[in-house]
Design brief:
205 residues; alpha/beta; globular; 9 strands
Amino acid sequence: MNKVIQNYWDTVYQTKTSNQISWTQEIPKTSLDFIHSFGLAKTAKIIDIGGGDSKLVDHLLDEGFDNITVLDISSKALEKAKKRLGSRAEKVNWIVSDITEFKPDTLFDVWHDRATFHFLTSAAQVAKYMDTARSSVSGFLTIGVFSDRGPEKCSGLSIKQYSEDNLTQELQNGFDKIRCITEDHETPFRTTQNFLFCSFKRHAS
């Protein structure tokens, strides 16, 4: 695992509250809307890539989903989420891993990623991500990234902006696009970030 990046994110989650990080959402409505659109059984296997201490897992548990995995490079982020969930954290599979080094041993019905993919700025990183997604997703993938009208950095790190066409091209080997939307995310400190969200369905190879 890239220890420099891991330490960077551990420090972010150790030193900042949820009101001091831009990606905080009390209710991740767009992510939930996309997941609801897939018509899943409550037993569906859902993985949240780069979930950190996002409250998506809270809402999925509230709705009765019982096969949830949350992956993040920062153990400190996952510790915050576990503490918030209390005993309910035992219902979740927690994985500390760099997404480019993740070796899943199961197939997922839904792969959800809000704001991890756009941190992969090299072709090699994107290729590793896509190899993993193709080999481990049997159903749907939903992904949120900064749009071509969004920020060029996040938390001090460079990111890769995407248009709908660019994102579709990256995923076309393995996934068929269902729909895309753009939306403005208002950060806790009243700035606006334009996101692109798209959903895809895994197609037979």
